[in-house]
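User: Please run a holo structure prediction.
Assistant: Happy to. Please share the sequence and the ligand.
User: Here you go; the ligand is pyridoxal-5'-phosphate.
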Amino acid sequence: MENIQFAERMGSIRTSVVRELAKYLSDPEVISFSGGNPANSSFPVEQVDEITHDLLMTKGRQLLQYGTTSGYKPLIEAYIEHIAAPKGLAVSEDHVITLTGSMQGLDLLCKVLLNPGDTVLVEAPTFAGALNVFRIYQANIVSVDMDDEGIMVDQLEEIFKTQSPKLFYCIPTFQNPTGKTLGLERRKSIAELAYKYNVIVIEDDPYGDLRFSGEAVPPIKIFDPDDRIIYLNSFSKILSPGLRVATMLGNPEILKKACVAKQSCDTHTANLNQAIAAEFLNRGLLPGHLAKILPPYKVQLDTMLKAMDDHFPSCCSYTRPEGGLFIWGEFQKDINMTDMMYKAIQEEKVAFVPGQTYFVGDTQKRAGTFRLNFSNATVDQINDGIRRLGRLFREVIAE
Ligand SMILES: Cc1ncc(COP(=O)(O)O)c(C=O)c1O
């Protein structure tokens, strides 16, 4: 069929660079620091197998039937008890719905809150998947800069004041793509400013429980007496992304509308998958599971940082996260990391993601930035891949 007339809303959507890179990654010799997946070895296959068997034997007929749009009640209860309450969010059940991945939460919130042309404020840089959701809903996307400690609050207030965004989307803990974590005082300021300027905040927190060192920082949501912050959690990075189970915690009025939108989307999140997540929590397996998967991630992160210290040129600075899955790098020189990425794949057989993909507006001035993922490579691959990247960086800089 020729000349398919796609909807205007699809016009500004970009294919993810990570997905585009996939064609090069089929080469087994390529060492990839480009993805964002949790390690395959982190999945608790035996525990999920046992839980699934028990669930099917005891509640199989109920779980294989349709369920409720707002979510499987035992999962909502278990989420509040085991995840939300320990973070200071001991809410009632009407404050939580379940989702088919937290991406769905972003989609539903845009569906119920945004009109085309409404302004959405994001961090610069931010999660590319979220940018595409905001583009589909034809939002006017603007961004607030970050310094070493995350969102710059003065600039945030200026944008709240002058551009009246309807939504502010942020990832305050182990941010994708930077790995940065916002300090306590800035979290409080964001909650106060959102109230002062009547902005709804989407706080996306898929990485907060992947902390390898340092002190936990509470969600911005705990400083929100006005119930205008919507808090997204996901089981993708702490249990399995393939289960597609996540939660949205926030204002019951907004959640009710989101449920109406979810009905015409997927009716409800898969019962069996929700029940597996609920059992995982209720059997007390999450703490032991995290204790098992975090140390290898820390080894991978430390190895990557040490190799970067040893091999990267001094004009390249980078974050030193205490958790999450990413390190963010930046050249203090005029270097184009998209060109560098192709060179790295072809000449050194190493893949990473150029940073421009995580920005809106004039992305040219962000050309020297890049993201590295450390969770999907062995220690040997990390040492080898970073050494090769360092060699290429030095060569290009010397030219
Ligand atoms: C910041 C952020 N939010 C949301 C998601 C998507 O999570 P889920 O698998 O729950 O849809 C990701 C996945 O990479 C992410 O990095």
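The chain has two domains: 8-44+288-398, 66-285.
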